[in-house]
Design goal:
By secondary structure, the protein is of the alpha+beta class. 51% of the residues lie in helices and 9% in strands. It has a four-stranded mixed beta sheet. Strands 1-2 form a two-stranded antiparallel sheet. A two-stranded antiparallel sheet has the order 4-5. The longest helix has 27 residues.
Length: 479
Amino acid sequence: TIYGAFDKHAYRRSVFKVETVGDCYVAVAGLPEPDKEHAVAVCRFARDCMKTMKEITVKLEMTLGPDTSDLDLRVGIHSGQVTAGVLRGERSRFQLFGDTMNTAARMESASERHRIQVSQVTADLLLASGLSAWIIPRRSKVFVKGKGEMQTYWLDTKAAKISKPSKSGNEMPTVSETLSNSSDSSSGEGAFDDNGLDDFEAMTKRERLVEYIVEVLSSLLQQIIASRGAVDVSNDTSLSEIEATIGTGDTVLEEFVPIIPLKRFDAGDLSKRHEASSIDIGEEAKTQLRNFLSNVASMYKDNPFHNFEHASHVTASVKKLLTRIVNVADGNGLQTSTDEIDLVNMAGHSYGITSDPLTQFSVLFSAIIHDMDHPGVPNAQLVKENTRSAQIFKKSVAEQNSVELAWAMLMGKEYDALRACIYHTEEDLRRFRQLVVNTVMATDIVDKELQALRKARWETAFADTRVQDETSDDCKATI
């Protein structure tokens, strides 16, 4: 956890953690053991926390989803006398009081994202320690409630190289020299490498979103391969002819079907499955997936709503929804081949979606491509303006255009290895295409005919008099 990492830094720097209040971490140097260099210690601690915050959020982005790495930290530091005491009650705790605490809180609230602000008092202590290069005066004074205008300083955290203060006292170290020494001298869990952080900061937000989706889809590709009962990821060569003709009808909407038959599994299928985590989709396939998603991202237009960031958030939401359906803890989803799972019950709880990773992949794939090349205006406006795409598709214009563009790109020779991971047979290819068509078409919630179809399908699927059979489950799963 972030606070757990901060605690380790506090221990290593001899900084005392006072408390955490919501998203605020309160710490002090020079207490309870006096330390003449308390200002230097707490500044080094603040720098450590700033760096660790970025490293942890980058790692968490892969599990918590897009924008996690946008979480950041601001720090405020002040020095002075405090009143200390232990508050009694159900949970006794050490607490600090006084004007110094209030001013430190104001330094934090008046600070900025990814910056460390120090007061004049703390800056003077750093100057007395020969660390003038550590501080950079703010261009304008800061208004502090109860104090008025105050001159404050930024702590320089962009140091290149740091050495310990010279014993002669003639030459003072730069902030970069001192901070680098601090990191180089530490070891174990408290030490961190700047290289990964530099690489991350060089990435754009779009690139970070792409990396997140690469990890999500790669995991499902592992499950798809595992469900085949073999690790061979080469496609049947005869599929190339089918790939060249599938989806070449008049319009995408004509391929829409009210009910998609899901794949059925029996106990024999389960015994052939490999453990998904042991499957390696290969570096070539993963590189092609990354390139494909990067090209998808580049085809999104920068309009207020139908943009790549929005599509990434939709993908993250769908992933969370599928996670609730595919509850591994209760025996759903792919397990090791030695686990005994009642496939009938497993499929029944989710109408078959749980036992088929290709269905899950198709829905997530559809989420990320569903608004490709969207012009940012409603379909009705596109038809009214008689745009080129409206002349071709007539209705559900933006949705059909997205499917056409994404599918044509996926069928390119540069994505052969990726396609081999997604589908292995003609049946899987056709089912993948149908799932993508249906899922993207479902995002058109304005078309009245599609609305009427959905309403009728719902009433049929969940009617009290409906016979419960495979067709009924397929209907519910499609919904």
